Amino acid sequence: MGSATTQALAATTTALGAASGVDLDVARELFAAARAVGDSSQLSGALADSAAPVAARRKVVADVFGRAVKPTTASLLTTAVEQRWSSADDLVDAIEELAIRAAAVATPAAELDEELFRFSRTIAGNPELELALGSRVGDTAAKRALVETLLSGRANDATTLIASSLVQQPRERRIRQLLSRATRIVADQRGRKVATVYSASPISDAQSTRLAAALSQRYGAAVSLNTVVDPTVIGGLRVQIADDVIDASVSSRLADVRQRLAG
């Protein structure tokens, strides 16, 4: 991610925080806008062209989206195109991120990150499902309908919106990767980090509480845990937070011993 994009993302996130009337309709419209911009190289190029006057980029947003979306959505899209992006793809990613954050804002009481994580584990355990949702030649409407059916009655409407929207525009990304990114974005919007904990057997509530407290102290933010039972860990824990990995597993120590013995 380029420095221009980093600054632009900060500006769009701030704009969302200051916006009023953010609901699931706004999130839905932002997802649709991300698909429209991502599907048109001409549109994405025009909106991400930092050499073009800002007024011209605003006019494109007004002409393409102005009457079709709510004022809050139009305002957020305008803020996005006013920024300087490192690439057109970064602009599309940013609009998608705004949509995910808007869904989190619209449903403050829902555990969206936990539901997204559970859905990603369901996909991980079903290769046929992952193939069906990740196929580049699959019908997007069919993918959306499949996700909606799978999550009906099992997840919040915001979770369903996020997951069903992401599968419609994977853009060379794996479905589990998309869901993991969405999980991190939702957690960040709510001021916390997400740790994925791998263990050979389920960890107790007391262990979860102690681990979450230790990680919160280390990272200076509230940390929520998603746990995965992985027999290959053998014993101990492996914890991943974003790009950080804390590996205190027996399998890791055994691998280290084998490596030393080999040479």
UniProtKB/TrEMBL annotation:
Top-rank taxon, per record: Bacteria
Cellular compartments annotated: Cell membrane; Membrane
Membrane topology recorded in Swiss-Prot or TrEMBL: Peripheral membrane protein
Location (main, coarse): membrane
Keyword hit for Membrane: yes
Keyword Membrane attributed: yes
Keywords carried by this UniProt record: ATP synthesis, Cell membrane, CF(1), Hydrogen ion transport, Ion transport, Membrane, Transport
Pfam families: OSCP
InterPro entries the record matches: ATPase_OSCP/dsu (IPR000711)
Family from the record: Belongs to the ATPase delta chain family.
Function summary: F(1)F(0) ATP synthase produces ATP from ADP in the presence of a proton or sodium gradient. F-type ATPases consist of two structural domains, F(1) containing the extramembraneous catalytic core and F(0) containing the membrane proton channel, linked together by a central stalk and a peripheral stalk. During catalysis, ATP synthesis in the catalytic domain of F(1) is coupled via a rotary mechanism of the central stalk subunits to proton translocation. This protein is part of the stalk that links CF(0) to CF(1). It either transmits conformational changes from CF(0) to CF(1) or is implicated in proton conduction.
Listed name of the protein: ATP synthase subunit delta
Species assigned in the record: Microbacterium salsuginis
